[in-house]
Amino acid sequence: MIEIAGYAGSVLVAVSLLMSNVLRLRFINLAGALIFVFYGLAIKAYAVFAANLFVAIVDIYYIYALKSKKDIFKFIKISPQDKLLKYFLSYNGRDIISFFPRFSDAELDRAECFLIMRNLSAVGAFIFLRENKTIRVILDYIIADYRDLKTARCFYNSSQAAEEFSGFEKIAAETDNAQHIKYLKLMGFSQNPSNPMLFEKKI
After folding, report:
1. End-to-end CA separation in angstroms for the chain
2. Domain 73-202, what fold?
3. Splitting the chain (203 residues) into consecutive groups of 10 residues, what average pLDDT does each group show?
C-alpha cells in the first residue's frame, strides 16, 4: 500500500510538469508533494519528508499568491483587419482550430472583434456577428495559460459587453468540441433541443 502511494505521488508530480496553466500545476504538484510527505514519514525517509514538506509549503504560498492577485482586464474593440489581431490569430492558429475547426479568416470581413487583454497581455479574442436579435459567436478563444474562466466571466459581465449586446435577445455558439461544450455550460449556455451543436445564452 505504501509503495502504491509512492508511485501515485511520482505520477502526480510528473503530470504537474505537463500543465501549461500555472495554478493547475501548483495544485497538482502540491497533491504529489503531500503524498510524498506522508510516504516519507511512513517509511522513515526523513530526507524525502523534509524535501517534500518544503515543496508543499512553496506550492501553498504560490497558490495563495495567484489566487489573491488582482488582475486587470481590458476589452479592446478592434478592426478585423488589425495587424495585431491577425498576428494573434496566426500565432495561436493551431490551438484555435482544435477548438473552432470551422473558423476561417473569410468570416472576419463582416465580423466584429474584441481583443482581450489581461495584465497588459493579449490573452484572447472574441469575434462575433450580429444576426437579427442574436449575437452569433464565431470565436471565443483564450490562450491556455489563462483558461481559468476568470477572463470569460469578466468579459461577459463587463459593461462593454452589456453595451455591445444591448437590444439583442441571446448569444449563440455552435460546437461539437467536448471541452468547449463544458466551457459553454459553465458560462450559462444551454443546448438547443433541436440542434445538439447549438448552445444559447439569454442576454
Report:
1. 53
2. Aminopeptidase (3.40.630)
3. 68 75 85 87 86 92 84 91 94 93 84 93 95 94 88 89 91 93 94 94 91
Cα–Cα distance for residue pair 22/16, rounded to 1 Å: 9
Query: Could you tell me the residue ranges of all domains in the chain?
Result: 2-68, 73-202
Give the integer Cα–Cα distance in Å for 12 and 35. Answer: 9
pLDDT score recorded for residue 181: 94
Task: Please give the full DSSP string across 118-150, using - where no structure is assigned.
Answer: ETTEEEEEEEEEEETTEEEEEEEEE-GGG-SSH
Strand, coil or helix: what is 76?
Answer: strand
Buried/exposed 51-81: b ≥16 CB within 10 Å, e otherwise: ebbebbeebeebbeeeeeeeeebebeebebe
pLDDT on residue 7: 60
The three three-digit cell numbers of residue 131, written as one number: 444576426
* E strands, the chain, in order: 73-78, 112-118, 121-131, 134-142, 170-174, 190-192, 195-202
State how far the Cα of 54 lies from the Cα of 3, in Å rounded to an integer. Answer: 22
Whether the full predicted model's pTM is greater than 0.90, yes or no, is no
Helix (H, G, I), strand (E, B) or coil at 8: helix
pLDDT of amino acid 61: 92
Q: How far apart are CA 73 and CA 91, in angstroms?
A: 21
